Amino acid sequence: MRKITIVLALICTSFGAYAQEMLTPTRSTTNDFRGRVEGAVEWEVVDDLTLEAAVQLRLNNDLGSVDRIQTGVGVNYRVNKYFDFGADYILINGYESDVKSWDKPRHRANVNVRGTVKVGRVELSLRERLQTTFRTDSVNRYEKMNPELVLRSRLMAEYSLRHSRWSPYALFEMNNTLNAPQVVANYKSEVLRTDNYITRYRLGVGAKFRISRYHRLDFYYYFDYDRGYNIDYKGNSGALKGYVQENEFRHTFGISYKFKL
């Protein structure tokens, strides 16, 4: 009986070590230079209530291919000089360069709240954004959630230069996923559990330029560290097939034009 107990203990230990190794992701790291070009129109309907519509083109693969085209509309209400609230909708049309076709679109909705305080000529702001993205393709919710929930927290400092049309700024942002699927050994025999972790760290610098009362330009550079997990299961058995932590360092250069009605 003692020998049987020892053998069973060794089997359980071996299986536990194998499962732990199986659930430890492999890692991949990439670097990419990206670009963004955006045009927007802003209309102040009444005092402190504004509407905005925008179109943005994004490039990836070292600026060599189109990543996506997205269009959006939004509304923002300024409660007082310290707080404003907003919401917007974005239609995302991604481009698959490998097959040279547009991917199935995604729908994104954001709810924002921002606090602002001025210290001398510096404006400090903290924005919290709840982001929800709905996919139109069929996905395994053990691999990718639909919809996906992300909390984006951004701290920004903007400096108003004296006797100048330029306003330089710097920002730091973190993306925290709220319902990412936890990896399991077999999704057909285990219940779905969600996890949350930081998926992106962003450092950014830029400068806004006021051409006139109605025209604005914004030049910026973002450095992103993106971390995501590519989870792949065997459809027939549900067993874990692949588990990769994908790390990407992104350098994004962008320009945005806004017309204020």
* Gross geometry: elongated
Please name the CATH topology. Answer: Lipocalin
Low-confidence stretches: 4-21
Strand content: over 45%
Order of helices and strands: HEEEEEEEEEEEEEE
Task: Please compute the radius of gyration using only Cα atoms.
Answer: 23 Å
CATH architecture call:
Beta Barrel
Mean pLDDT reading: 90
Q: DSSP helix count?
A: 1
Give the tally of structural domains: 1
Level of helix content? under 10%
Can you list the strand order of the major beta sheet?
1-2-3-4-6-7-8-9-12-13-14
**What is the highest CATH level, the class?**
Mainly Beta
Distance between the termini: 85 Å
Going by helix content, strand content and strand pairing, the class is mainly beta
What does this 3D model show about the protein?
- The chain is mainly beta and 261 residues long.
- It has a single domain (2-33, 80-88, 97-260), classed as Lipocalin (Beta Barrel), CATH 2.40.128.
- 8% of the residues lie in helices and 66% in strands.
- It has one helix at 2-22; strands at 26-46, 49-60, 65-78, 83-96, 101-102, 106-119, 122-135, 148-159, 166-177, 180-181, 194-195, 198-210, 215-233, 240-260.
- The strands form two sheets. An eleven-stranded mixed barrel has the order 1-2-3-4-6-7-8-9-12-13-14. Strands 10-11 form a two-stranded antiparallel ribbon.
- The longest helix has 21 residues, at 2-22.
- The protein is elongated, with a radius of gyration of 23 Å.
- The termini are far apart.
